[in-house]
Write a structure and sequence with these properties.
about 425 residues, alpha/beta, Aminopeptidase, Alpha-Beta Plaits, 2 domains, 9-stranded mixed beta sheet, 4-stranded antiparallel beta sheet
């Protein structure tokens, strides 16, 4: 007979195993890249996902890989006809990334399943542990590949996207065990999940600054990403007077500063604007730049703030082009809307945290996550653990072992609480 559900606690054997698995996974990194790089489709990523599959199987999960390359581990529930309770995250990193972003959520989810089985606790709902394929940006220009697929938003046009070598995304999926010709089979039905809970490092400093140990996420920012091209004329840098130039680099500098001002325009608005990528032609020190291409993004929980930002970016580019005599063109790469976490699930997550004797803080996520896509299938919520100094997407990314252990305990308790609740 299954045991009664008891309050979770980060006991030492479980805590040590979570940390050991996390550090083991980190060792699967690209040798020619800085930090703990493990980009989607890389050999290191392929090797690491076999490790994840082995961990799932050793835990007693029924492991499958869907047509989108997602790794799924299923634990049967007492009432198998109920929709699944889903937990997980991703295990790919950005170039020069760290050891915690995404990986914490997958390793902790596997440990939750292990602990439920070890204690003889059987949930009402089936438990589904997921390692989503390719959450981070990649060489095909499309992030959250696996979570897009399960929500039906990875379509045939996406599969034709090509990288610099000419390889299509569909061809790359084959290399990770996917089946692009059957991509629609990876789609989950609407309302087919009881809830989705993702444990993640904060990637910011609010928890650390407020002295809080756990955070319940209120919502995930919308991200609008735009490519700006400024086309001028190449000229000799030594013989062309300043007033006669059509300098794409100089125009790009004005646009970059203008976009920065958009991000700072409203004090306390929690909106940010960033230019993180730029390419210049011909990229020579003695030639006036003829073309500058930059990629900018706006992020906010406020949809109106984002809409106004879109208009102001367009106006800024048009103004600079008019003043400099260059041609300025914009193309929107993505315009993802902000996503609120489910209010009842937020309350239940806070309850679960308090049952561990911890007072949570509610905070927004300034980073996007697979969770943002899962919100279209059912109730979605997230738990945050601290990131030292707010650092992330860098080798210095760090979360203490005790914080990882507490986050795992909170995820376990949340699963137990949400399993019994009506959402």
């Amino acid at each position: 007979m299954a045991s009664e559900v008891s309050p979770a606690a980060p006991s030492r054997p479980f805590s040590d195993r979570v940390w050991a698995n996390l550090m083991m996974l980190a060792e699967y990194a690209e040798p020619d890249q800085p930090g703990w790089t493990r980009r989607v489709f890389s050999p290191a990523y392929l090797e690491s996902r076999q490790v994840v599959a082995d961990l799932m199987e050793a835990t007693g999960l029924e492991v499958t890989r869907d047509a989108a390359g997602n790794l799924l581990g299923q634990l049967a529930g007492a009432e198998p006809d109920l929709p699944a309770l889903v937990i997980g995250s991703h295990t790919d990193t950005v170039a020069g990334g760290g050891r915690f972003d995404g990986m914490v959520g997958v390793v902790a989810a596997i440990e939750v399943a292990r602990r439920l089985r070890a204690e003889g606790t059987r949930l009402r709902h089936p438990l589904r542990v997921v390692d989503f394929l390719g959450e981070e940006p990649n060489r095909f220009g499309l992030s959250c590949l696996g979570s897009r697929a399960v929500t039906g938003h990875l379509d045939p046009a996406h599969l034709q996207l090509r990288d610099a070598s000419g390889l299509t995304l569909g061809e790359a999926l084959v290399g990770v065990g996917g089946q692009p010709e059957a991509i629609q089979s990876a789609r989950w039905k609407a309302n087919s999940i009881h809830g989705y809970i993702e444990l993640h490092v904060e990637q910011g400093a609010r928890l650390e600054e407020t002295g809080r140990r756990l955070g319940v996420v209120s919502g995930i920012v919308g991200i609008h990403r735009v490519r700006v091209e400024l086309v001028g004329r190449p000229d000799h840098a030594g013989t062309t007077p300043m007033g006669s130039r059509l300098d794409a680099m100089q125009a790009a500098a004005q646009v970059i500063l203008g976009i920065d001002r958009i991000g700072r325009r409203q004090e306390g608005a929690e909106g940010v604007a960033t230019v993180g990528q730029i390419a210049v032609e011909p990229n020579s020190p003695n030639v006036v730049a003829s073309r500058a291409t930059l990629v900018a993004e706006l992020r906010s929980l406020d949809a109106e703030w984002l809409a106004q930002g879109d208009q102001q970016v367009a106006a800024q580019v048009a103004q600079v082009a008019s003043e400099t005599g260059l041609v300025g063109e914009l193309s929107w790469l993505s315009q993802e809307a902000p996503v609120a976490c489910h209010p009842t699930l937020r309350r239940l997550l806070a309850q679960a945290v308090r049952e561990l004797g911890v007072d949570p803080v509610e905070l927004a996520s300034g980073a996007s996550h697979d969770a943002a896509h899962l919100a279209g299938l059912g109730p979605m919520g997230m738990l945050f653990i601290p990131s030292r100094g707010g650092r992330s997407h860098c080798p210095e990314e760090w979360t203490d072992p005790e914080q990882v252990a507490l986050g795992t305990a909170a995820l376990l308790r949340a699963v137990q609480v949400v399993d019994r609740a009506q959402l």
